[in-house]
Amino acid sequence: MAFEGLASRLQNVFGKLRGKGKLSEEDVNEALREVRLALLEADVNFKVVKEFVAKVKEQAIGQDVMKSFTPGMVVVDIVNKELTALMGGTQSKLAKANKPPTVIMMVGLQGAGKTTTTGKLAKLLQKQNARPLLVACDVYRPAAIKQLQVLGEQIKAPVFSLGDQVSPVEIARKGMQQAKDNHNDYVIIDTAGRLHVDEELMDELKNIREAVKPDEILLVVDAMTGQDAVNVAESFHKQMELTGVVLTKLDGDTRGGAALSVKAVTGCPIKFAAMGEKVDALEPFFPDRMASRILG
Ligand code: GDP
User: Fold this and answer.
1) CA-based angle 44:225:152, to the nearest 5?
2) Which of 6, 32, 119, 221 could be a cystine partner for 42, CB 3.0 to 4.6 Å?
3) For the segment 19-51, what is each residue's pLDDT rounded down to a tens digit?
4) pLDDT digits 0-9 by tens, 129-162
5) What whole-number distance in Å separates Cα of residue 266 and Cα of residue 220?
6) ipTM of the predicted structure?
7) Residue 38 and residue 31: Cα distance in Å, rounded?
8) Which residues does the UniProt record annotate as the domain SRP54-type proteins GTP-binding (predicted)?
9) 260: closest CA among 78, 33, 85?
């Protein structure tokens, strides 16, 4: 399960802390040293760890905490609050266009889960009675179009495609027109990825962005790749002004670094979490629930 190592280490530290009646400054320091190590081992960005521990320490060493009847619990509450804040504080919802359709552009590296997530997001929107149109703009990866069509059939959502011989910008433009003609309230555009962030990819994405003026640009990143996911998010955000991140593969044994660092490093909120290959394995991301899950 994701975060297993981090969760068990933190629960261990806090178990010891909770058990103590009174806390000395040294007890708190010792616990925070262990928290620091646990976060680093979970592949959380080192600057993020440093600031996080400093913030917790500042609050935990205060007189009120030391004098409270259950100081260990108070420290755990502080950590919980700061972990939640680290991941964005409150849930960051999907934007909605004043005038439909709301346009969502999905971007990311190949293999991150972009196409799968496009289908999952459509399904999530359908559950809210929306009528999304999926647009197949990944004309490079063999079978990407077919994959989206299969997903569309599975969830009974229309898929707009012009094959792989038409430019992605043209497909996006025509897809928008079809959504307007058919009164779809959401358009979700699946774009191409590459193995690495490169200029050609970014130029193409910028051209699509220019053509469709999306309300959301969601970066899909594989949580299993840890700090790499954060670096990818940083470069995409610089170029594309992302509106949100979708973390995929949280059902795997990710150590958690990406989930805990991406918002702090990029300023970009995590909007959804994918926890499996099935089409309904996508959930809105709630920082407080994730923090509680980690702290047990
Ligand atoms: P794309 O190249 O970014 O479009 O990636 P795909 O959507 O084709 O996904 C790549 C692989 O990752 C596929 O085998 C998906 O089934 C798998 N995948 C996507 N999201 C998840 C997830 O949340 N959990 C797991 N376990 N696998 C996922």
Assistant:
1) 125
2) 6
3) 877 888 888 899 999 999 999 999 999 999 999
4) 999 999 999 999 889 999 999 999 999 999 999 9
5) 14
6) 0.99
7) 11
8) 101-296
9) 85
